[in-house]
Amino acid sequence: MTTELHADSIPDDRPRPGEGTPIDSGPHSTGSPATRALGIAVLAGFAMLAYLGLAGTPEDQVQGELVRLLYVHPQSATVAYLGCFFATTGSVMYLWKRSVWWDLVAHATAEIGAVFTAFALITGMLWGRPSWGTYWVWDARLTSTAMLMLLLLGYLALRKLPGDPDVRARQSAIVGLLLVPNVILVRQSVTWWRTLHQAPTLSLPGAQIEGLLLFTMMFGFAVFSGLFLWLTIHRFRVAWLARQVDELAVDEAITARIAEGTPR
Amino acid sequence: MFRDATLVASKDLRIEWRSRVGINQIAPFAVLILVLFAFALDPDKGLLTKATPGLYWVAVLLCGLLAVQRSFAVEASDGATDALRLSGIEPSALFLGKAAAVLLQILVLDVVLLVGVTILYGTTFTGWVLVVGTVVSASVGIAAAGTLYGVLAAGLRVRETLLPLLLLPVLAPVLIGSTRAFEAALAGTTSEGWLWFGLLSVFALIYVAAGAALFGPLLEEA
Amino acid sequence: MSNTFYIVAGWIVVLGGSAAYATIVVLRGRALSLRVPVERRRWSSSSPNLPGPTDRP
Q1: What are phi and psi of A127, to 5 degrees?
Q2: Helices (H), strands (E): how many in chain A?
Q3: Alpha carbon of B208 to those of A5, A258, B96: distances in Å?
Q4: Prediction ipTM score
Q5: Which of A128, A177, B134, B138 suits A76 as a labelling partner, its CA being 20 to 30 A distant?
Q6: How far apart (Å, rounded) are the C-alpha atoms in residues A152 and A51?
Q7: What angle do CA A202, A207, A208 make, to 5 degrees?
Q8: Domains delineated in chain A
Q9: Is A254:A95 a contact under the CB 8 Å cutoff?
Q10: B31 Cβ partners below 8 Å, 6+ apart?
């Protein structure tokens, strides 16, 4: 009898899937040699970025020390929009090819997008408070990002509904495919709204940055992109496993139901 | 296809006419929202007048939510969704029919709210062409997007609370556009208002097309 | 230099938050892996003949 290593063990003496098989015979985590290499590279990148961003670069002439937030804020926002883009792409491809692979990509990237949208909003607020004196302004960028957050949360809430995975995948794909169009519509509306009457009087981050600071910012984009890739691979594999667990539960339920109906 | 859509729309409207939920519940709710806003914004301080366009359209959105939810609840309660799915009616016709029925209800609510706002908030509208244009294009957009996302929220109770979260962010451009258009109509600067009407029309077109194209897969029950 | 607070807070949120999220994902992956038979743990290694969708993109 193998040791009970399952996260939730049910007192049940039917042989459970995976039991009896030594777990070392297959992957027991979502990692692989490739992701480990990527992970190390990303970690090293972050170490370098932190050194450069916090210590190795001088302060900006215009923004002072606050420029150091420009090494994480736009990068988080970029990952957020990357996540949204791939969620939509995954949704479109899923509806086209009907391949579960794309459905899982959509789900994984949407969740990662949501996490980094939160980071972008928080760092945006942290940049805004000392620069503008207030945590929040209804400018086009912040407002659109807040709307992106809400759109992604809606998509993720839909994905969490119980039910048949295939129907859920199709329905999520429709909402997912509309994510990018909705983001574009909202961004445009907000931008026109906020700029029709007022000239942009707020100093926007990222203007006139150069030299080593610019390099650090770009390096930041590269590192965050690597992080996005690493997270997507792992989150994809988690989504795949979750789906397998769902499928197995359905199989077991069917088997149990058949067993009930069979006369002894 | 338009014949089928008309069939579906008239069915929905007939149900609505017989049950009078729109008249008995949603319209009073619309007026109630206006009254609540008056409590919240103290008419004496002049905030209410300034905020009228925004308050009007928030009220339309909230009532539109109810109308959409009702549109799908009437099917789900009797298991008619299955019958509709199997009836052989094309999903796009089904979408157009349901959206048209919702649109009519929202237009009625628009009129109720216009009257309410004129009486309760003392608004005097100028630029009537712009007002009508805005109301129509915004309502089409709300009805179309609402019907598309509404079908997701039909059925299980756990889905009902999902509709506002899914739909309202999508309708943000409508809220922005229609409010700005109303402000322009009230201020007399209608040329700018017509730009926003353009945005509302684009939104409406996109969602009518998207709804007709995408309604099919969403009909399947989870 | 009160700006230091905002800068440090921002970096902690992003780096710390990323690390936390990464940890959650990986740990969840491990827990789920144990509940799935070996041959179905990876999309890339799953047989196309398995019940349920395992198709290629």
Answers
A1: -75, -40
A2: 7, 0
A3: 53, 46, 8
A4: 0.89
A5: A177
A6: 33
A7: 140
A8: 35-199+209-250 (1.20.120)
A9: no
A10: B112, B116
Structure tokens belonging to residue A177: 């495919």
CB-based contact C53 A18, cutoff 8 Å: no
Encoded tokens for B41: 């914004």
Asked if A99 and A137 count as a contact pair (C-beta separation under 8 A), the reply is: no
* CA–CA gap between residue C30 and residue A93 (Å, rounded): 28
Question: b vs e for B13-50, b when ≥16 Cβ sit within 10 Å of the residue's Cβ?
Answer: bebbeeeebbeeebbeebbebbeebeeebeeeeeebee
For the stretch B166-176, pLDDT in tens is 999 999 999 99
Provide, as residue numbers in chain A, all residues whose Cβ is less than 8 Å from the Cβ of B168.
150
Q: How would you write the pLDDT of chain C (57 residues) with one tens digit per residue?
A: 578 889 999 999 999 999 999 999 999 999 999 888 888 888 877 765 554 444 445
Note the pTM of the prediction, 2 decimals: 0.87
Q: What is the DSSP letter of A203?
A: P
Chain A residues whose C-beta is within 8 A of a chain B C-beta are: 95, 147, 150-151, 153-154, 157-158, 161-164, 167-168, 170-171, 173-175, 177-178, 181-182, 185-186, 188-190, 192-193, 196
Closest to A104 (Cα-Cα) out of A248, A233, A16: A233
